[in-house]
Amino acid sequence: MYRAATLMRNQNVQAALAEINRVLGFKLALECLELRFCFYLALEDYKSAICDVQAILTLSPDYRMFEGWVAASQFRTLVREHVENWTTADCWLQLYDRWSSVDDIGSLSVIYQMLESDAAKGVLYFRRSLLLLRLNCPEAAMRSLQLARQHASSDDEKLVYEGWILYDTGHCEEGLQKAEESIEIKRSFEAFFLKAYALADSSQDPSSSSIVVSLLEDALKCPSDRLRKGQALNNLGSVYVDRGKLDLAADCYINALKIRHARAHQGLARVHFLRDDKSAAYEEMSKLIEKARNNASAYEKRSEYCDSELTKTDLEMVTRLDPLRVYPYRYRAAVLMDSHKEAEAIAELSRAIAFKADLHLLHLRAAFHEHVGDVMGALRDCRAALSVDPNHQEMLELHSRVNCHEP
Question: Which ranges does the UniProt record give for the TPR repeats (predicted)?
Fold first, then answer.
């Protein structure tokens, strides 16, 4: 934020926006949205400014800007005077475009505007909850789900939202029951989708995948819009991949792409890879990178489908776009270790552990410490990991082995 503000003061507008966009690409922070909103105001880019202030109000309806002096809602009122009003049809077209390009902040803004109209609010609050989950805002997502339940237009719709609330709070079986109750009242896309999603997550029986396929096929037969049908086709493709039915999976992903469900590129890339066509998989992920607004995860996935030099390049891009993603650090550390650059490998892991001390990273660094004979370093990481999970079997074994060499 400081660099972005400094660049803006020096009238380096594009660099300032690029800097703040880089942060918003991996962390949806209110203060970053506020700063970008101010940048857009200075540029008199009111369409972009209202997008950000509406996203702010979605996340925090009572948010106050300029160190608490002015309510964000007041700024929105002022900016709206400079922005053309959209009809309901315009809003749906905008939502479809932004959802398809994985522009989650833009989608949140459009839904905020739609909620002011007479549109079906339950459906919109539900869509908003899906976006907020994708943006790693679980508390705001749950508030939105509760509002969806409150504004449901029918009993069957209300049961679906109650099912998602139960599912998201760890009550999967109860969520399934709500889906079944909803289907008894009315066969709807959302009820079948919820039942399929919950069943896929909760059942350990391999045969349940055929039931999930049937439920998703039933969902696709019900009326819904292309945003949700694209998601159902994508999920159905994933189930077919897990069952080894690659042709059926490819058909699902291609049909999803026909209705602009951009994330289906990732599923189709996986199909190409399983058919031993890494080149086609790489090209498919490149198409997603071109379309997606926030694409660090796409670069990370594409890195699996190329040679070592391109993998290294893609993972460096991932770290630039989202420095909090752990996998690139682990990969680079492993490559450095294979090249007998032990100190550099340990330093690379330490960069990741500085912001996320998870068990896998600590276990890997402990093993690296053991390899170079640093008993105290290995013990330190073992003890840190075991304080998080005292029953971690691999860490217990490593701790026992290293402990024998403690001075």
Answer: 230-263
H or E element: which one contains 219?
helix 208-221
CB 221 within 8 A of CB 250: no
Give the Cα separation of 314 and 309 in Å (integer).
Answer: 9
Segment 250-287, tens digit of pLDDT: 999 999 999 999 999 999 999 999 999 999 999 999 99
Q: What is the pTM of this model?
A: 0.86
Helices 2-9 + 30-43 axis angle, to 10: 10
- Sign of the C-alpha dihedral computed for residues 172, 174, 178 and 180 taken in this order: positive
**CA distance linking residue 82 with residue 374, whole number of Å:** 64
Sequence-distant (≥ 6) Cβ neighbours of residue 202 within 8 angstroms: 172, 173, 176
Dump pLDDT digits (tens) for 320-367: 999 999 999 999 999 999 999 999 999 999 999 999 988 999 999 999
> Which of 333, 326, 374, 334 lies closest to 352, judged by CA?
326
Alpha-carbon span 328 to 324, nearest angstrom: 10
- Which of 203, 294, 284 lies closest to 237 in space, CA to CA? 284
pLDDT in tens, 213-262: 999 999 999 999 888 999 999 999 999 999 999 999 999 999 999 999 99
Amino acid occupying residue 364: L
The CATH class for the domain spanning 327-403 reads: mainly alpha
CATH architecture observed for domain 1-84 = Alpha Horseshoe (1.25)
Q: Is 29 exposed, middle or buried (0-12, 13-18, 19+ CB in 10 A)?
A: middle
